[in-house]
């Protein structure tokens, strides 16, 4: 190719051909590369042999000393050292594990529970035979049992009742009142009793729930001279007439207090 070569000279031609001058002849052969690493980088520009100053892993070039995780994850850690990629995976216990978690590196199945001749899956909740008041749960091969929680009751202790087959107490209805008790005078009236508390125009009744309901009576006077009877609420216009403090019966005549020559008569209308 127009260039003189000394006998025994060696050089590299384009296309990674290694040539030598022997006895006036040029002998060429493909360059033989010795790669002493597992993940060499491609030959740099102008070079023929891969280099072990970095690593090529899954198509990605890694620098010397680079620490990385492979694409499949699973908590494996890899490092690039002198063109070699070394990976470490966590040691997982064989068989099942106490509790599965998405963040765990090990893929495992939670252990089942064997309890009283039965097998329960992890997380299963169940009650003991014949005892609905106890709830059990399977956690990683272990069974934990506890009493069923009961709601808070707002009734006093003497009104609480635990029925047969029940886990929690319930509140009994308070006994119905037998009557109405009046604190001011200590008198108790039976349910339905009607009485007057002192005013004849006011009547009270004892309700079924033990309360007292009272109501006043409105009187309408229909005659000019009504008769007021002691202990009676409204004046009576049918019994006679009241005149100057005296009571006269119907159709009774009497002299006028203003003029002795005048005669009056009681007329009930």
UniProtKB/TrEMBL annotation:
Zinc-finger found in the keyword field: no
Superkingdom to which the source organism belongs: Eukaryota
Record-annotated VWFC domain positions: 1-53, 53-114, 111-172, 178-238
GO biological process: cellular response to virus
Protein's cellular compartments: Secreted
Keywords attached to this entry: Glycoprotein, Secreted, Signal
UniProt KW Glycoprotein keyword: yes
SUPFAM superfamilies: FnI-like domain
Main location: secreted
GO cellular component terms listed in the entry, alphabetical order: cytoplasm; extracellular region
Name of protein: VWCE protein
């Amino acid at each position: 190719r127009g260039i003189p070569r000394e006998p025994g000279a060696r050089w590299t031609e384009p296309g990674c051909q290694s040539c030598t001058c022997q006895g006036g002849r040029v002998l060429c052969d493909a360059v033989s590369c010795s790669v002493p690493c597992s993940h060499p980088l491609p030959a740099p520009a102008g070079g023929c042999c891969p280099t072990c100053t970095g690593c090529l892993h899954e198509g990605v070039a890694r620098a010397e000393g680079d620490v990385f995780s492979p694409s499949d994850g699973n908590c494996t850690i890899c490092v690039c050292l002198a063109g070699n990629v070394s990976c470490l995976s966590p040691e997982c216990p064989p068989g099942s594990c106490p509790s599965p978690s998405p963040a765990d590196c090990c893929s495992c199945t939670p252990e089942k529970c064997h309890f009283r001749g039965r097998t329960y899956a992890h997380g299963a909740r169940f009650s003991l035979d014949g005892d609905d008041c106890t709830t059990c749960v399977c956690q990683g091969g272990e069974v934990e049992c506890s009493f069923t929680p009961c709601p808070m009751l707002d009734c006093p202790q003497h009104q609480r009742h635990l029925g047969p087959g029940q886990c929690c107490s319930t509140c009994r209805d308070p006994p119905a009142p037998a009557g109405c008790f009046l604190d001011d005078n200590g008198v108790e009236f039976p349910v339905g009793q009607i009485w007057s508390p002192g005013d004849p125009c006011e009547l009270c009744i004892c309700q079924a729930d033990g309360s007292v309901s009272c109501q006043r009576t409105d009187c309408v006077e229909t005659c000019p001279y009504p008769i007021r009877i002691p202990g009676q609420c409204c004046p009576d216009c049918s019994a006679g007439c009241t005149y100057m403090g005296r009571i006269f019966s119907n159709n009774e005549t009497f002299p006028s207090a203003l003029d002795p020559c005048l005669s009056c008569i009681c007329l009930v209308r």
